[in-house]
Amino acid sequence: MADLPRPLTDLKVLDLSEGVAGPFCTKLMGAMGADVLKVERPGQGDIARSMPPFFHDAPHPEGSGLFLYLNTNKRSITLNLEEPAGRAICRRLAAWADVLIEDFRPGAMDTWGLGYADLEQINPRLVYTSISDFGQTGPYRDYEGSDIVGLALGGLLYITGESDKPPLRMGGQPAQYFTGLSAFTGALIAVHYQEATGQGQQVDAAMMDGIAVAQMYSALTYAYKKENRGRIQDFAPMFRARDGFVGVMYRQQNWEDFCHLIGRPELVEDPRFHDTTARRANMQELNAIVGEWIKDQPKAELYHTAQAMRMPFGYICSAADLLESPQYQARGYFIQVDHPATGPLTYPGMPLRMGEIPWDITRAPLLGEHNEAVYCGQLGYSKEDLGRLRGVGVI
Amino acid sequence: MAMALEGVRILDLTQVWAGPTCMKLLGDMGAQVIKIESYKRMDTVRGEPNARPGGAGIYPDDNPGVRPWNRTGHYNDRNRSKLDICLDLTEPRGVETFKRLVAVSDVVGESFRVGVMERFGLSYQELKKVNPDIIMISLSSQGATGPERSYGSFGATLEQTAGIASFTGYLGGNPTTSGTFFPDPVVAVLGAGSIVAALRHRNRTGQGMYIDLSQRETTTNIIGEAVLDYTMNGRAWEPMGNRHRVYAPQGVYRCQGDDMWIAVTVKSDAQWAALCGVMGEPALAHDPRYADVLGRHQHHAEIDVLIEEWTQARDAFEAMRTLQQAGVPAGVALKGNQLLENPHLNARKFWDIVEHPEAGTHPYLSRPFLHSKTPGATRMPAPLLGQHTEMVLREIARLSEAEIRELAELGITSNIPIGAPEEG
């Protein structure tokens, strides 16, 4: 089965990125069958190797959960692009690759002679994908970013949270993950064009652009109504249940069933709530009634009961809830990945199934694990050369 | 200008947000996207056929107009670069006509509740009989298999059931959601990429495929490290407001003006020293309480007060420029009008200005990637309901004029939604 061609079989990806966005992009490519060659700085490696969570909370370059999750299905070599000899090797690898992913500060690759204009000369087919916080052009190009800064300037931060409190970030690193997805899809669209025409190009994936696309409401609401959307939680109000939180969607098509579910059939015709407009006007009153009822209900049971009645409720799932989810279990979503530094651990798997092809998820590489295979096997250096290159800090 | 996906034809049965946005991105990049709706059941974001001003929908100047379904912002944003036909798939003639389009298409996308396509007689197995190398993608809530496959969701409830809401919230407060439907664009972009990957597979092997994408699983994929912290260490993440798990300080601070805020992240001791310098308190950089990241985490609340004392006396944009010049990551929490006016996005020509025949001219969000040789574009405004029915049936499905007339007479095609007010 492992020999079945995958969607991205034979796609050669040179991955110069680190952290979250670029590695998430190439993780997806790797799972779809691409040959991902990850280039890390000698010594420290990918910055994610120094970021928590660490296995058993013990900081170690091979024990970062962030790194282990984001770097499945890749090979790792070390290479120092600050050194001219390192850049020369990088150019050889760029000639080999179909896709290059980089996330250096905009302009850095150009100063190293590794910009798109340089590498296009070597490999006109190259899909050169640049990931950054603000893009390769524009007045903010050289600004410093972070996940929350991306959420802020992309317009999502302002609309998250409560109106009488400061804007609130979504938990985790959503802006960086989204940027990784943008790079993934942007690069594959360019690969489609490359395979049709033989031409490469540069793809510019920026976190600020991505979040602006993802938040959507603010700009659209202003463009259409000259109104700024504020921080309002009107989609799926959340209520404290007996053992956690439940999210409720009020929908006209479910309204009658909903009133019966909460044991208040008289509300079906109540003019305060009987249609969407009325419910919006009297939302606080309605939420008080619903909240009083939900507080004694068990969250997961209520969720399943409501879903069986075709009401798209939600409930707050912790990581433990996800691992116990019968749905995730039935689909085999979580997978076991063995790794020398951690032993077998449970990871989220791939979120889609593509045809009959089974996913084959391989563990993240150790730092420089494939140096010999790549430098000697692929590029033709001798083991002696390898020692010299290491000695002068190139690999 | 060259279009990357020229020659790809997609039948788009999706509705609401994720699916339509997915197909729009591919349409912007050159695919021919044919959206299929029905006058009996339009895409629900076209709103109530008899919508009145002041309701929930986003209409130009809050005016639903005579045909509100052609004027909603959400529909018009997510369905640009598409053709639109009306076809009643609950009728055999509608299904038969749809299959004629399948025979000459590359991709079929749908986001119905699991089981609906089977009821139409349009499962992947049936589509394959018409077009053996068709690619079909289902963007369902929970995936096409499993005991909860028929469950429904919206982006806000997916944030809850996929795990991300459990650690979104104010410090010490309840879990909450993003205020938008964040999982939908995540699903849209991943869906678009996987369709292109499937096209590559078909081009190389001659085989189509069925793509079963779970929106809930996709959303859990963007919190991988939180899951691993649990599986490695048994730690459940909780809301921590605007703070960062590693860097300190990080927060959102009030500025001058009405509800104006700036987000700031300090990633290193050097950035901390720079921030102290900007605030006119260089001595703070040497204060042993704040000298390293552990101290700054321990004293985060008092540092927040110091930063806000500085920001609240300043214009947010001025504060951002000053901080950025000193190398400190900072960004204004932009409101809708500020996004539209933003000099950076405008310099990057981020907005697509689109004239729509019934909604007027507006700026719309473009794409989260910019290609140097094949830049995408909104190739046409969002379609009016059923705007291209006849053209598509004639030129793509290759129906005769008599067949097209017959479908209209049978009520298989119509561009007047049920419930529309009578025109006077």
Give the arrangement of secondary structure elements.
The complex is a heterodimer of chains A (395) and B (424).
Chain A: E1 12-15, H1 21-31, E2 35-40, H2 65-70, E3 75-78, H3 84-96, E4 99-102, H4 108-111, H5 116-122, E5 127-132, H6 147-153, H7 174-197, E6 201-206, H8 207-215, H9 217-225, E7 238-241, E8 244-247, H10 255-261, H11 276-281, H12 283-294, H13 299-308, E9 314-315, H14 319-324, H15 326-331, E10 334-337, E11 345-348, E12 352-354, H16 371-378, H17 383-391
Parallel strand pairs in A: 1-2, 1-4, 2-3, 4-5, 5-6
Antiparallel strand pairs in A: 7-8, 8-9, 10-11
Helix pairs in contact in A: 1-7, 6-8, 7-8
Chain B: E1 9-12, H1 18-28, E2 32-37, H2 73-78, E3 82-86, H3 92-102, E4 107-110, H4 116-120, H5 124-130, E5 135-140, H6 155-161, H7 183-205, E6 209-214, H8 215-221, H9 224-233, E7 250-254, E8 261-265, H10 269-278, H11 293-298, H12 300-311, H13 316-325, E9 330-332, H14 336-341, H15 343-347, E10 352-356, E11 360-364, E12 370-371, H16 389-395, H17 401-409
Parallel strand pairs in B: 1-2, 1-4, 2-3, 4-5, 5-6
Antiparallel strand pairs in B: 7-8, 8-9, 10-11
Helix pairs in contact in B: 1-7, 7-8
Description:
The complex is a heterodimer of chains A (395) and B (424). Chain A is built from 17 helices and 12 strands. With 395 residues, chain A is α/β, with parallel strands linked by helices. Chain A has 2 domains: 12-216 and 329-391, Rossmann fold; 238-311, formyl-coa transferase, domain 3, CATH 3.30.1540.10. In chain A, the strands form 3 sheets. In chain A, strands 3-2-1-4-5-6 form a 6-stranded parallel sheet, sandwiched between helices. A 3-stranded antiparallel sheet of chain A has the order 7-8-9. In chain A, strand 10 and strand 11 form a beta hairpin. In chain A, helix 1 (21-31) packs across helix 7 (174-197) and helix 6 crosses helix 8 (207-215). The longest helix of chain A has 24 residues, at 174-197. The radius of gyration of chain A is 25 Å and the shape is elongated. Chain B is α/β, with parallel strands linked by helices. Chain B has 2 domains: 9-221 and 349-409, Crotonobetainyl-coa:carnitine coa-transferase, domain 1 (Rossmann fold, 3-Layer(aba) Sandwich); 261-332, formyl-coa transferase, domain 3. In chain B, 36% of the residues lie in helices and 13% in strands. A 6-stranded parallel sheet of chain B has the order 3-2-1-4-5-6, sandwiched between helices. Chain B is elongated, with a radius of gyration of 25 Å. Chains A and B meet through helix 2, helix 6, helix 7, strand 6 and helix 8 of A and helix 2, helix 6, helix 7, strand 6 and helix 8 of B. Strand 12 (352-354) of chain A pairs antiparallel with strand 6 (209-214) of chain B, so a sheet runs across the interface.
